[in-house]
Design a protein that fits this description.
DHBP synthase; 6-stranded mixed beta sheet; 31% helix; alpha/beta; 17% strand
């Protein structure tokens, strides 16, 4: 047991705020090669894989013990990346993006042709979010594309806030864990479907539903 814990903890790489490039480069190398990393977000630790790599996405489902009928959201570095994944950006979606991004709001768009069906779980929709964490957005920019953003816990288990918790839960399953300290935790992101003209609340989370209803530009 001790040897197993040591092996899991050995996968943790601590990021140096003054010189983050080395840690970020290791994350990029693993993702580009089809691997899976665990990384901190503005809520909990997430599991990051290349969303355009079918084998990596399949591994993610197997790792989490996640049903193929459950879609996987993506984290993007800025709103300009939405057009890479969404077939359409409605006016109401644009308003919500301006009001709440970066932040804990996942917007579900009608997926663009070519988006992996594993990500959409056959729904035709793709969930996207610009995280509120500067570090997470920096990681996404360094890698150069979106990452899967599903939480790092196994399906049905508590969400994870630290690198050590993550190592103990999935350290033998992922290729690397990026440690930048404890994540904020709290509520998961609020999820809103913006694939139609009128937004529809799917899950209330860190942003209350009353803040989503009838948004108006300032």
């Amino acid at each position: 047991m001790v040897a197993l814990v040591q092996k899991m903890l050995s996968k943790i790489i601590t990021i140096d705020p003054a010189h983050p490039e080395q840690a970020l480069a290791r994350c990029r190398d693993i993702v580009v090669s089809g691997g899976v990393i665990a990384y901190p977000t503005d809520t909990f630790y997430g599991l990051g894989a290349d969303p355009k790599n079918p084998a990596a996405v399949q591994r993610l489902f197997e790792l989490k013990g996640r049903g193929m009928d459950q879609p996987i959201l993506l984290l993007i570095s800025d709103a300009g990346e939405v057009e890479n994944w969404a077939a359409e950006i409605t006016p109401q979606a644009s308003v919500l993006m301006k009001r709440f991004w970066p932040g804990p709001l996942t917007l579900v768009f009608r997926a663009k042709a070519g988006v992996l069906s594993g990500l959409t779980a056959g729904t035709g929709g793709i969930g996207l979010r610009v995280p509120g964490s500067d570090l997470t957005r920096g990681l996404l920019r360094f890698i150069g594309h979106a990452l899967t953003g599903t939480s790092a816990n196994l399906t049905g288990r508590p969400r994870l806030r630290t690198a050590r918790e993550t190592a103990e839960a999935v350290g033998d399953l992922v290729d690397l864990i990026l440690d930048s300290g404890e994540t904020p935790g709290g509520m998961p992101s609020t999820v809103v479907d913006v694939s139609a003209e009128q937004p529809r609340l799917i899950r209330e989370g860190a942003i209350a539903s009353r803040e989503i209803t009838g948004p108006r530009e300032s």
